[in-house]
Amino acid sequence: MRAAVLRDGRLVYRDDVPEPTPGPGQVLVEVTACGICGSDLHFASHGEQVLAATQAMSGSPSSRASVDLGADIFMGHEFSAQVLEAGPGTDTFAPGTPVTSIPILLAAKGIEPIVYSNTTLGGYAEKMLLSAPLLLPIPNGLDPRHAALTEPMAVGLHAVNKSGATPGETALVLGCGPIGMAIIAALRMTGVEDIVAADYSPTRRDLAARMGAHRTLDPAQGSPFDTVAPKVIFEAVGVPGIIDDVLRRAPVGSRLVVAGVCMEADTVHPFYGIAKEISVQFVLAYQPAEFAASLQAIAEGRVDVAPLITGEVGLEGVGSAFAELADPDRHCKILVMP
């Protein structure tokens, strides 16, 4: 079976991966499309750092040892697929049914996240295993390429839900990568009437407007806070210094939602946040109901993800796609089409 795997920091093509066999409660599916996520790019470049941080957070050396960076690593967690066959004693959708799922595999040894693994296949492969209880059928007529973006859209919806943003509040989104775009789309869907997006890339700013931003700003022309007094701010950049700058510049009583994943140590001045009573909320992933709601919103046309898709590659082209995604003016989301 064909797949693209992470090997020594590079995505390489293989045509000799054993086809997985579904166990009880599992379903073998054929991957239709899989989005390349920014977290995949980061892990490819900084896998050791990611695993070390995970170990430090859990306090368990075994958490780091769960992924061997010296062996091939399977990736791909933004996917759509078609059902092929079910495991023993498993009731599920008929073969050929288009589906998507939260990227988690329920197995005899426990819960296996479909993110990066030496053993659990992801969406950068022809076939993979999914959990029957977690499958969601893709509504009739929905382009499977669009359904593959359910996962990142759910991340944006979760951030907005955590923010408590209301229609009458001004929302400022810092960073217009895929997660920033998902936040903008979720804010628009929630009915927020003043969405401001800031990014250095003119291409990303134009795309943000298409996704629902009412105004866009170039930080190179001055701080967004010079012209905007937001009630809620979404940090979707993930580099050191951003949080501290927001605390220093944000209005009194505002709320900061941190969605950008910064893997480096950062420094903040708590006094800024204390003096202005700024609430800070860190967010991660989504709830199952938010995943389902995002799929429904895409299917009903309340969220149009088509503008986000800027390229498609086969399994042989995943490595070059990783390199191309480093240019924010060229790509937003590249889909892998096995």
From TrEMBL:
Alcohol dehydrogenase-like N-terminal domain mapped to chain residues: 23-139
Coiled coil regions, renumbered to chain: none
Pfam families for this protein: ADH_N, ADH_zinc_N
Single GO MF annotation: oxidoreductase activity
Record keywords, A-Z: Oxidoreductase
Domain called Alcohol dehydrogenase-like C-terminal: residue spans: 178-299
Entry-linked InterPro entries: ADH-like_C (IPR013149), ADH-like_N (IPR013154), GroES-like_sf (IPR011032), NAD(P)-bd_dom_sf (IPR036291)
Designated name of the protein: Alcohol dehydrogenase
Organismal lineage: Bacteria, Bacillati, Actinomycetota, Actinomycetes, Mycobacteriales
